[in-house]
From TrEMBL:
The organism of origin for this protein: Candidatus Schekmanbacteria bacterium RBG_16_38_11
Keyword tags: Membrane, Transmembrane, Transmembrane helix
Transmembrane segments: 27-46
Protein name in the entry: Sodium:proton antiporter
């Protein structure tokens, strides 16, 4: 993925989605963000910046 801003926006979107999901299902935010980050890193074409 060439566009750094798009990549940053996708990571922030994943973090926001994890936060909203954690509020909905009452799981720790940190735990859910780690799980979403692992899934995002595995299945989406995202790389660390």
């Amino acid at each position: 993925m060439e566009n750094q801003w798009l990549q940053a926006a996708l990571w922030m979107g994943l973090a926001l989605g994890a936060t909203l999901l954690s509020l909905r299902i009452a799981i720790s935010i940190a735990l859910l963000e780690i799980m979403v980050g692992v899934l995002g890193g595995s299945f989406l074409p995202l790389h660390r910046t």
